[in-house]
Known about the structure:
The structure holds two protein chains of two kinds. Chain A is mostly helical.
Amino acid sequence: MGVTGLLLCGFLVAHLAGNLLLFMGAKPFNEYAHALHSQWELLAVAEFGLVVLFLAHVYLAVATTIGNYRARRDFYVLKQSKVPGRIIGANSWMFASGSVVLGFVILHLIDLRLGLRSSLQYLPETDLEAPFKNTLAAISDPISRVVYFVGVIVLGVHLSHGFASAFQSLGLNHPKYTPLIKIIGKIFGVIIAVGFASIVVFVPGMWR
Amino acid sequence: MNHAASKNLNLTLKIWRQAGPKQSGGLKTYQVSGISTDMSFLEMLDVLNEQLIASGEEPVAFDHDCREGICGTCGVVINGQAHGPDSGTTTCQLHMRRFHDGDTIVIEPWLAKAFPIVRDLIVDRSAFDRIIQAGGFVSVNTGNAPEANTTLVPHHVQQDAMNAAACIGCGACVASCKNASAMLFVSAKVSHLASLPQGQAERSKRVLNMVATMDAEHFGNCTNTGECEAACPAKIKLTNIAQLNREYMKAALLSKE
């Protein structure tokens, strides 16, 4: 879980960096997209790697959650946390938040990787304006806009526990660095959530 | 002896009653009165049991032994918290002064697939014994004790080992974990012995065998929620789980055993 999660975090950084070009307008974004797509051999390897990582992450999540559910078996009539100040934490909702993110990713892939939404007007890939226009069409669609917004906010919550948790699972715990890793994990969650959410909130209004 | 702060409590207890492993159980309500705030939680249960015996009812079965927090025998979930509301204490060290007159207290046994209920508040924790049998030991030669100064252990290493060795094996970590994971228990034993020279001979085999036994006993996986650390009466730290993960990966990847 930890290894696949951290590698997927690396993808998020690259993906956010590329997508923030949407704020710069059509030309920089299209140039970036075409530069990316021109390296199709590398892109194919990267996409394959991403699919493997993502499926491995989902598989491990389902397998461990089923195992955990069976191990717990009985639930208390009354249960309270003993962690000071904790009422409800992101850590208890990793499977639920992950499921929401999975749903969002599926719609996102249908919208923009596979181009299967009949309600969206897609430009053909040969069109030089296609990357920007198609992205704008997807994030202007009311359903996608809401799902993307909710998806990335929940992703931020997921990361706020997941990032630091991955280090612990990999045995990387140190009195000097662990407090810092925990803070970085929270900040990383906020950056990813706010960064992607800002795109669906502001970009459709900027380039009508 | 009339303690100035001492007073008597009237309480409503909702206690899990279950006649045997196969029977179904449920919460049963009891009233106790005149409970001194100087009593321990177990003494309060003793008072209830005296009351039940006098009225011809079966007393509540609960585990206890030393009653001073070092044996790890006692342990119940009190109002949803393993060993009750205090941190770093066992059930026997919990005082009734932590409660107020008129309180309702819900008392449940440890719940986990690996800890089947024997009766009422008693669970079978022999899964922990089998994990220890799988590797929680060191092999030493018989005969004279070796010269102490031939094996030097730096103070901070000795402290880490001692802190991990403080685990009393009560099972509160498993009981409080949403996944019923035994990682804190196993990590305390593995860290303790891996830190010391005496534990080096079986270091790889120990972690592999103990983790395999832990999985075979149907404990859950660790999702780093930290509930175990907060519930642990011996204050075993989560850093031990990270060390267990390191020890396991090192042994799984590099050991020839």
